[in-house]
């Protein structure tokens, strides 16, 4: 890889008298874009006039930048930062994709305090009348549904219950799913059976996408690297990994992932769901036992079912229940025959996407020492999002990642890419390359996706420049041996969680200095940690019942009634500044605990969170959602004392 | 006696006191008097009923309190241990290693996987620095590396970023996905289509979305691994018919119908599952006959066109175009965007009902993030290229013919693939089965004569006369052929499968994938290299 020779010179902006122009680089790019459009360069490539393309870091920006066709109210904070940047601050991102936030106090580090016991999440129950009315409201729609058809029960739920709230799901969108998102408006004339587009678009604040570190960007160094890779590699690898679909990029990316996770070796699969469903069958088989958390993801259950292993479940995150189950299954052995189990594999998730709870990793590792099971941690949501270095739950709890046997995760969430990985020791990964469905039958990951993974991962890690000699380039390593896992330059100096050596990246990837020194990655991690903690605690202070850990970027807010859930979603979407959120209900959650789920991102600013809080405050009042017991603060106090709220050790 | 009574006196006091408080508290509850009146009157009328109701209430409470993840310690196989014994058992137990060590053969296999440096395409560069002719990548229509696709990909990247950052149900449903689904449906001529983000996970999700326990599936014995997994997950009843033998299918369907009438069992959902061009050997299904049978016996047809979509038909629409059958005759038409359009993902096309059902029930659709926009647009662009340039498919067919002309006449190769199939499987043909290692007995004459007689058992996935071959030996020979061809500058590959995990043992083969991106001369050159490699390696074995 090469380093950009100090290309976007901030001094360029400093020289300008800025008081009149309350803008940053994104404005300039947008202006240049608008200018180009005005000149009638419509279908062609967007070559802006050289005079205006002052900033090279904001490359030819896409259609949906700051100056989107007709922005209604420019003062609403969606398109322009509500606090104008000063001349000292240079933002290289587009505000609608990655919000501008220069206040260094709005940062926090996601880290477990060492030595402290991991507290379980106290699940607050709502008053009984809420529970009873929830059941009654289900009963009501069920009865009405049954009245309307009492023959076919099969699709009853979908037709009669879900279709009432279908307008809250599968909403078509366009553009970058970053800090904001463009909804394609639609309406239904036949009770949500079909939807017609109105042709208009609405930009809303996006609290719904899995974009924890804000890498969903159409601009910036990662996108530049992907563009380069498309030019060099095209869009596909055209085969499976075991046949002829292995590119040099795959080996480089796998080596980088292994380094990032602090494991010996790693493999990459082209789909997150399939990572579990095609690899678990290679880990366990008949005669083995899988112990699975009751809230594990569908892909895990799918994979376990294919494997033919026995399955037992334990109560969510309950280590006592797990231990007694372990004692039972080890002493009893296999059912009927009482033969000892071949292996016992415990599968848990790092961060549960519906609950916002974190796995109690220290306790699990204690149990592991005694009961000799193998541990599989699915970090689909926690990798990148948790821990002071973004390396997931192991980093968060400060335990050695190698004490976990199998680390699985996806690139969809924190890295703005797609697909998944498995990291483990070398023997395990080699075994999986030979015996799992993934390597023999699934398509290899596409080169642009690999590049996004590498570029975003490197910017989280930071890059140590290693002068490229003739022999140390990663390509020549490939020449010397054609063994599959290539250990790219064995640098013991940069131990876990250290930086990536520049030789681990392809030499055509050029990253700006802010990415190489890791400051960009640190900024993202710290902003996400602040946002998560702020929203979690602020919602509780407002009196809402939320599940989940304080540091979790997934924040579930309980609404209980299925009807309220839909109303909540619609009210958020139709506000003056629309807010896009996800609502989930049965069957993804237990029947009574319908919930709203917020997915925070490093791209959100503190003002964005304030906006969400204000909306929740108003809607929560209206829908009677503030049912939690405990101390409450008024909204103004929360927004004013945000930093204090976040840095409090305990939040009652 | 009196002493005991007096000593029990405080107890009675406490009892009577607590009873009184309980009673007063009970009557404080709203509606409690109604309950009390009901209990009293019912007890008066029928004392036995009170007892029964008390039992019922206790049972209900017990059922409610029982946890769903309860330990199965009430079963008759449960042995109770005390804590110390359990501790000992825990100490004694040693698990097997998580991953078995690779055997030398497996290590060799891992080391033999070629690494392409730079883009894949008709003439990729390998890690040993050599540029080779590619007869292995799924790039039938030569879309890999297409400049138009690259350009639209970059434009999409700037507009959408890379990842979709969410499942389709939760704001991951971008307009480009809707567009590609529409493009595929229009291209094939179906009402609608749904996009999955990986080809392998498509049909293994489509099958369980429609077929549940108790439903009936009639499947070909030679279906690919993804279908096998879909059948396994769906837990439905499966009947098997001989590989690509529609007479056998008809017999099985008739037998099922007869059995159903005899047992008067209720109608269930019924499906025929097969492939257009088979992944295992390149054989092609007779689609018109399949449609005829499915209509006659009232089944639905799930057709996997992962290989045939984008490789046969005038413009690459697959088997439906080749046989001129309207695509809406196939109920669920599954294809691979990764193979057919050199992008990523898979699709299922069908009616609106079929597609919308999957949007809620297709496991790997619902629980997976939507495909990156860039890859989606690349596929849309690929479809428009195929539509506008029918010459691509005629070039492809010419290339296939050119290769087949050379390889068909080599006497140490046998080819099970259909002449129009863009994947060509090459089996080793050894002079006689006597050559095989002694542990495989030669087919007895009684068995071979019965080939037209007794049909295979439809309950078992293994055919009555399983083909006999020495997989170890053939694999080794084929790998030698691959390496020999590679040394001569032609990249080919063995069809890699998980032996032992597939339903049946599949005869090892070399799988060629012909591309329209090569010219005829290159194809002939490559085919001659493959031929020479076969003659050299297998010929040596014969001597």
Automatic annotation (TrEMBL), chain A:
SUPFAM superfamilies: PLP-dependent transferases. Gene3D superfamilies: Aspartate Aminotransferase, domain 1, Type I PLP-dependent aspartate aminotransferase-like (Major domain). Residues 39-65 are annotated as: Disordered. It catalyses: L-serine + hexadecanoyl-CoA + H(+) = 3-oxosphinganine + CO2 + CoA. Its EC number is 2.3.1.50. Its cofactor is pyridoxal 5'-phosphate. Residues 45-62 have a biased composition (Low complexity). InterPro entries: Aminotrans_II_pyridoxalP_BS, Aminotransferase_I/II_large, AON_synthase_class-II, PyrdxlP-dep_Trfase, PyrdxlP-dep_Trfase_major, PyrdxlP-dep_Trfase_small. It holds the Pfam family Aminotran_1_2. Keywords: Pyridoxal phosphate, Transferase. Residues 205-454, 521-614 form the Aminotransferase class I/classII large domain. Belongs to the class-II pyridoxal-phosphate-dependent aminotransferase family. This is serine C-palmitoyltransferase. It comes from Somion occarium.
TrEMBL record, chain B:
Belongs to the class-II pyridoxal-phosphate-dependent aminotransferase family. It is an enzyme of class 2 (transferase). Residues 131-528 form the Aminotransferase class I/classII large domain. This is serine C-palmitoyltransferase. Residues 435-466 are annotated as: Disordered. Residues 446-459 have a biased composition (Low complexity). The keyword Acyltransferase applies. Pathway: Sphingolipid metabolism; Lipid metabolism; sphingolipid metabolism. It holds the Pfam family Aminotran_1_2. The keyword Transferase applies. InterPro entries: Aminotransferase_I/II_large, AON_synthase_class-II, PyrdxlP-dep_Trfase, PyrdxlP-dep_Trfase_major, PyrdxlP-dep_Trfase_small. Its cofactor is pyridoxal 5'-phosphate. Its EC number is 2.3.1.50. PANTHER family: CLASS II AMINOTRANSFERASE/8-AMINO-7-OXONONANOATE SYNTHASE (PTHR13693), SERINE PALMITOYLTRANSFERASE 1 (PTHR13693:SF2). Keywords: Acyltransferase, Lipid metabolism, Pyridoxal phosphate, Sphingolipid metabolism, Transferase.
């Amino acid at each position: 890889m090469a380093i950009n020779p100090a290309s976007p010179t901030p001094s360029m902006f400093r020289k300008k008298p800025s008081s009149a122009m309350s803008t940053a680089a994104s404005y300039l790019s947008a202006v240049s874009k608008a200018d180009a459009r005005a000149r009638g360069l419509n279908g062609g490539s967007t070559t802006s006039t050289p005079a205006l393309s002052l900033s090279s870091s904001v490359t030819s920006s896409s259609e949906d930048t700051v100056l989107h066709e007709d922005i209604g109210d420019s003062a609403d904070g969606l398109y322009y930062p509500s606090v104008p940047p000063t001349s000292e601050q240079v933002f290289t991102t587009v505000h609608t994709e990655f919000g501008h936030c220069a206040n260094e106090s709005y940062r926090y580090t996601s880290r477990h305090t060492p030595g402290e016991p991991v507290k379980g999440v106290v699940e607050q129950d709502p008053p009984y009348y809420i529970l009873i009315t929830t059941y009654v409201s289900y009963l009501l729609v069920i009865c009405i549904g049954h009245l309307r058809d009492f023959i076919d029960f099969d699709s009853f739920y979908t037709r009669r219950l879900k279709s009432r709230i279908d307008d809250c799901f599968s909403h078509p969108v366009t553009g970058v799913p970053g800090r904001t998102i463009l909804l394609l408006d639609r309406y239904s004339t036949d009770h949500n059976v079909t939807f017609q587009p109105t042709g208009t678009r609405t930009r809303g604040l996006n609290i719904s996408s899995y974009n924890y570190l804000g890498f969903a960007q159409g601009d910036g160094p990662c996108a530049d690297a992907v563009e380069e890779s498309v030019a060099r590699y095209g869009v596909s690898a055209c085969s499976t990994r075991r046949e002829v679909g292995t590119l040099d990029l795959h080996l480089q990316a796998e080596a980088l992932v292994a380094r990032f996770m602090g494991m010996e070796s790693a493999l990459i699969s082209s789909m997150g769901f399939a990572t579990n469903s095609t690899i678990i069958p290679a880990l366990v088989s008949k005669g083995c036992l899988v112990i699975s958390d009751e809230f594990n993801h569908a892909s895990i259950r799918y994979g376990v079912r294919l494997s033919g292993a026995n399955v037992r479940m334990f109560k969510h995150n309950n280590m006592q229940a797990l231990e007694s189950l372990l004692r039972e299954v080890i002493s009893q052995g296999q059912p009927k025959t009482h033969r000892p189990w071949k292996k016992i594999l415990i599968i848990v998730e790092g961060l549960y996407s519906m609950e916002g709870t974190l796995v109690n990793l220290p306790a699990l590792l204690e149990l592991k020492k005694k009961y000799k099971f193998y541990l599989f941690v699915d970090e689909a949501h926690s990798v990148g999002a948790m821990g002071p270095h973004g390396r997931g739950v192991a980093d968060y709890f400060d335990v050695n990642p190698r004490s976990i046997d199998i680390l699985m995760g996806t690139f969809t969430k924190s890295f703005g890419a797609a697909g998944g990985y498995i990291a483990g020791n070398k023997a395990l990964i080699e075994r999986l390359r030979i015996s799992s469905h993934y390597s023999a039958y699934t398509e290899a990951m596409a080169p642009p996706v690999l590049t996004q993974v590498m570029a975003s991962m490197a910017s989280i890690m930071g890059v140590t420049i290693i002068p490229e000699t003739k022999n140390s380039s990663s390509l020549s390593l490939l020449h010397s041996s054609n063994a599959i896992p290539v250990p790219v330059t064995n640098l013991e100096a940069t131990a876990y969680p250290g930086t990536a050596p520049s030789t681990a990246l392809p030499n055509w990837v050029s990253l700006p200095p802010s990415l190489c020194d890791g400051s960009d990655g640190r900024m993202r991690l710290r902003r996400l940690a602040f946002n998560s903690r702020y929203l979690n605690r602020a919602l509780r202070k407002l009196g809402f019942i939320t599940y989940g850990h304080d540091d979790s970027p997934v924040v579930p807010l309980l609404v209980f009634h299925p009807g309220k859930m839909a109303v909540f979603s619609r009210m958020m979407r139709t506000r003056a500044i629309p807010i896009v959120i996800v609502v989930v209900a049965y069957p993804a959650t237990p029947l009574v605990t319908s919930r709203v789920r917020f997915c925070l991102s490093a791209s959100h600013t503190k003002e964005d969170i304030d906006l969400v809080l204000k909306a929740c405050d108003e809607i929560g009042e209206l829908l009677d959602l503030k049912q939690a017991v405990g101390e409450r603060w008024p909204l103004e106090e929360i927004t004013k004392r945000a930093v204090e709220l976040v840095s409090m050790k305990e939040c009652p | 006696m009196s002493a005991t009574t007096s000593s029990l006196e405080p107890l009675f006091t406490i009892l009577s006191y607590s009873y009184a408080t309980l009673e007063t508290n009970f009557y404080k509850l709203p509606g409690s008097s109604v309950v009390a009146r009901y209990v009293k009157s019912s007890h008066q009328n029928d004392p036995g009923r009170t007892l029964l109701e008390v039992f019922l209430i206790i049972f209900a409470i017990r059922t409610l309190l029982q946890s769903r993840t309860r330990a199965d310690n009430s079963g008759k196989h449960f042995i109770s241990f005390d804590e110390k014994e359990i501790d000992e058992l825990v100490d004694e137990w040693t698990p097997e290693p998580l991953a078995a060590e690779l055997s030398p053969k497996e290590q060799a296999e891992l080391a033999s996987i070629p690494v392409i440096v730079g883009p894949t395409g008709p003439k990729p560069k390998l890690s040993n620095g050599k540029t080779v002719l590619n007869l292995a990548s799924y790039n039938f229509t030569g879309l890999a590396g297409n400049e138009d696709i690259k350009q639209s990909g970059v434009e999409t990247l700037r507009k959408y970023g890379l990842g979709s950052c969410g499942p389709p149900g939760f704001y991951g449903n971008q307009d480009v996905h809707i567009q590609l689904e529409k493009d595929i449906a229009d291209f094939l001529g179906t009402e609608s289509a749904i996009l999955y983000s990986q080809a392998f996970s498509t049909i293994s999700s489509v099958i369980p979305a429609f077929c549940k326990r108790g439903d009936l599936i009639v499947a070909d014995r030679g279906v690919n691994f993804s279908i096998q997994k879909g059948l396994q997950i769906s837990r439905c009843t499966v009947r098997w018919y001989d590989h690509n033998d529609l007479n056998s299918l008809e017999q099985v369907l008739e037998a099922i119908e007869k059995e159903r009438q005899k047992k008067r069992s209720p109608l269930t959902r019924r499906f025929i599952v097969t492939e257009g061009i088979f992944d295992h050997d390149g054989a092609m299904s007779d689609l018109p006959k399949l449609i005829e049978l499915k209509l006659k016996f009232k089944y639905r047809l799930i057709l996997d066109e992962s290989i045939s979509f984008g490789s046969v038909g005038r413009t690459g629409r697959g088997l439906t175009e080749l046989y001129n059958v309207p695509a809406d005759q196939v109920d669920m038409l599954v294809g691979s965007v990764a193979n057919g359009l050199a992008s990523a993902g898979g699709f299922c096309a069908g009616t609106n009902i079929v597609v919308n059902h999957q949007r809620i029930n297709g496991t790997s659709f619902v629980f997976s993030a939507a495909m990156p926009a860039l890859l989606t647009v690349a596929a849309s662009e690929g479809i428009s290229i195929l539509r506008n340039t029918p010459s691509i498919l005629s070039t492809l067919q010419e290339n296939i013919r050119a290769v087949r002309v050379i390889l068909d006449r080599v006497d140490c190769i046998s080819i099970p693939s259909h002449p129009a199939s863009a994947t060509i499987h090459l089996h080793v043909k050894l002079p006689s089965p006597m050559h095989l290692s002694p542990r495989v007995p030669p087919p007895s004459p009684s068995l071979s004569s019965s080939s037209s007689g007794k049909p295979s058992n439809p309950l078992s996935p293994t055919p009555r006369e399983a083909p006999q071959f020495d997989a170890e030996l053939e694999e080794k020979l084929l790998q030698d052929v691959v390496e020999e061809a590679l040394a001569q500058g032609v990249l080919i590959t063995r069809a890699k499968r998980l032996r032992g995990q597939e339903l049946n043992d599949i005869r090892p083969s070399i799988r060629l994938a012909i591309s329209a991106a090569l010219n005829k001369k290159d194809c002939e050159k490559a085919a001659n290299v493959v031929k020479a490699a076969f003659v050299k390696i297998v010929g040596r074995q014969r001597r």
